[in-house]
Amino acid sequence: MSSIAKHLFATLALSLLATAFFGCGSGNKEGAPLVVTKVGDSKCIQCHSSVTEALTGESIVAQYQRSSPHNTPALGCESCHGGGAMHNGVGPIPFPRPTANRCATCHNGRTATATNANTDFETSNHVTGTPRFTTSYCYRCHTNEGAVLGNIAGWTGNTEILQDPVTQGKVPLVTTFTGFNCETCHEHGGGLRPIKATDAPAGNLVNWDPNNNKLVDQFDLCTSCHTLYNYNGTLLLVNGQDLTAGGGVIPTGRIAARHENEWFRMIASTHFDNPNTGLGANSTPVGTANVIEGYNLRRTGTSPCYDCHGHEAKTQTNPSSTENTIHKDWAQSAHAGHLLTAKYTATTGLVGAAAVAAAMNAGVIDDPTVGGPGWVHYNWDQTTGTGNRAACQACHTSTGISNYLATQNTILTGYNPANNNFSHLSGWTAATGSPQNELLYCWGCHNNAGTGSLRNTSQAILTFTDPSDNPIIITNAGNSTACIVCHGGRGSAGEAILTPSSRFNGHHAPTAGILYSEKTHIGFEYPGQSYANPSFFAHDVIGANAAGPCASCHMGPSATYGKSSHSFAALTESGGVITAINNQALCNSCHTPGGSFEITPAVMEEERNGYAQASTILSNYLANVTGYTNYLNADIIATFATAPEGAYRAYQNAKIGGTLGGTFGGTIIDPVAGEEPCAYVHNRFYIKRLVFDSIDWMLDGAINSTITLSAQTIIDYPEAVVWLGANPATGVATRP
Asked: Is the Cβ–Cβ distance between 382 and 430 less than 8 Å?
């Protein structure tokens, strides 16, 4: 065969091979295709400008040029369809009809707003719940055709609009209804579909723009079905009535948008936080005015809905549902102020409008027994002026923690509360704040909720320094980094000795501060005493460089849905007694079952009770109650401000696990609900030494490394005797 013939044969073979890989409409599975040269948008437009979308009749090129985020010189048509050099109108093109998997090659949570794997969308309620049209207007939001055509025709809004035959008549008649797909929300090129509404008094078409930012964005698209505010954002949708004026109570005979008999399906009952009942309002009883009735969305942000939901968009918050999801877990956790639990409780036994009204008024309140103070106790979003809480925003707002975590590598100079923008909250200014506050939303810890990507997993730099004024940096914590930042505390043993405070200097819930005590020195340690961890201590290295200690214990995989639990509950209780360790297998990996150091629910219950009773003994000595006379023969709780340093240290340490630490507004909480009620498991030896040394000091004003419990103490607090390692006959205990 001649060289020319060989060359022609090879060329033909390559051509046939290329056709096999990239034939138009071929079985390309969108894996890793061969690279095909791009030709640019102008070549595509020459032939495709006359092609129209079958459902709307609109030009696909017009849609692309109107809204596509890919309509840039660096991207273009071929960023989705692949190079067109071999296409020329009839030849092969790598991705003739790109699917969500093609989108995911770029939209992975780093390059752009997230899309999960295609399977997440395919199993979502958006797909499994469509098509559905049990009544004439159900197909507006439960079919692909109704959603697309309704958006164009202005068939968008509350119940009166949906039921209006004139408005419905503007929608072209179709005979075939299909379920949701990518094109339901996205125009050709990936841009979001614009939405029209009907101006009810005049009947004119207007732009559906409830966040009133003059843009077509995600908030507009999602609320075209999940209605919350009117088209111009002026009214909460209850048949055109302003619900905010009624204190959140639905007027008699009025119904809010659709699904008015199912409060958990109504965005107005879960995502509306009434500013009229927010911070600063008068209330009875005092304290209940500080309330959050719904999740406050970043309405003008790029992804206010995907901040938490992603393409999966499956919450299963129906109170009758037995399926758990991340959303359902989180909404009942302290990070959400137990908001969903409050709504479940408020609606028990109610149906219809009564249930909706009860749900809309139920929320997070300033009550430590239900986890509210962390979110509503102060006007956390006030950044300047008298009484501002700028220093608190890094942990008490999602905006603050998201910005704090984003600057972890330069935190000493990088984070500035003045850059915290809360303009999505009602009436917010930096000087006055807003009557609304934030909970710890998904986007606080995650830069992308759809993929679960966290904002920072490299290092946690705490907001205070150690006793030598060095920055406290925790590494190797992986996914637990965000937890450590806020639960690391706010002060250490070397601070505030000369400026006594009635509050625990280490702040509330300093779980990680106790866990990483060798770096934080968060307790009020006594000079000359060693508080170093025992050589076998390993709680601070659980899940090192992976899940980390916090996530490993508190977010173990759920057997129900195979993802990390967001209830953050490490233990299960019944009747106030620990009945299960939720990640028992993790404990068993070190604490061998059947061995001397086995950890069981019963062991945990003994440890908890011992810790609580020992903290109560310390509190008794501080209060100088009968049978617990301290070396000063004085009530240190009442005179802490003038107490000697050693006694003040004991006073502070009692707050970690005792009644002193669980005081809010004069109300004393159970001893177990101190500032760190689980210190007995997070760092058992550290807290035991703090309590022991504090009792030791209060007995005679000196550290002797032994204490003797009285006969009455042995009777009253038997589990503390075991926890402190005291001889049950003599009451003598040596320092652990």
From this structure: yes
Which of 725, 716, 719, 730 shows the shortest CA–CA distance to 627? 716
b/e burial code for range 452-478 (CB count within 10 A of at least 16 → b): bebbbbebbbbbbbbeeeeebebebbb
- What pLDDT, in 10s, does the model give residues 581-607? 999 999 999 999 999 999 999 999 999
Task: Point out which residues pair with 154 in neighbouring strands.
Answer: none
Q: Give the largest CA-CA distance in the chain.
A: 113
Q: How many CB atoms within 10 Å of residue 16?
A: 10
Q: Could you tell me if residue 99 is left (phi over 0), alpha (psi between -120 and 50 degrees) or otherwise beta?
A: beta
Which of these, 419, 694, 664, lies nearest to 529 by C-alpha position? 694
Q: List, as one string, the DSSP characters of 100-115.
A: HHHHHTTTTTTSSS--
Average pLDDT value over all residues in the chain = 84
Is the pTM for the entire model greater than 0.90? no
Count other C-beta atoms under 10 Å from residue 2's C-beta.
Answer: 7
248 or 127, which is more confident: 127
- For residue 4, the tally of other CB atoms under 10 A from its CB is 8
**Residue 243: what residue type?**
L
Q: Are 614 and 691 in contact (CB under 8 A)?
A: yes
Q: What are phi and psi of 166, to 5 degrees?
A: -65, -45
Closest by alpha carbon to 483, among 298, 325, 307, 682?
Answer: 682
Give me the mean pLDDT over the 411-431 stretch. Answer: 87
Confidence class for position 241, pLDDT limits 50, 70, 90: very low
DSSP codes joined into one string, 67-136: H-TT-STTS-THHHH---TTTTTTS--S-SS--HHHHHTTTTTTSSS----HHHHHTSHHHHT-S--SST
How many CB atoms sit inside 10 A of residue 6's CB?
10
Average pLDDT, integer, range 28-37: 60
Query: Following DSSP, what letter does each residue of 364-384 receive, concatenated?
Result: EES-GGGT-HHHHSS-TT--S
Helix (H) or strand (E) holding 527: none
Residue pLDDT, tens place only, 461-484: 998 888 888 889 999 999 999 999
pLDDT tens profile 33-91: 557 889 999 999 988 989 999 999 999 999 999 999 999 999 999 999 999 888 876 78
| Separation in Å, CA 431 to CA 273, 299, 389, 425, 520 | 21, 21, 11, 14, 33
Could you give the count of Cα atoms lying within 13 Å of 301 in the half-sphere of its Cβ?
Answer: 18
Q: Which pLDDT score, from 0 to 100, does residue 230 have?
A: 84
pLDDT tier for residue 129 given thresholds of 50, 70 and 90? confident
Q: Which residue bears the tokens 């990070």?
A: 335
φ/ψ of residue 365, rounded to 5: -120, 170
Q: What is the DSSP letter of 564?
A: B
Backbone angles phi, psi at 289, to 5 degrees: -65, -35
Residue 627 amino acid letter: G
Q: Which two tokens stand for residue 451?
A: 């993929």
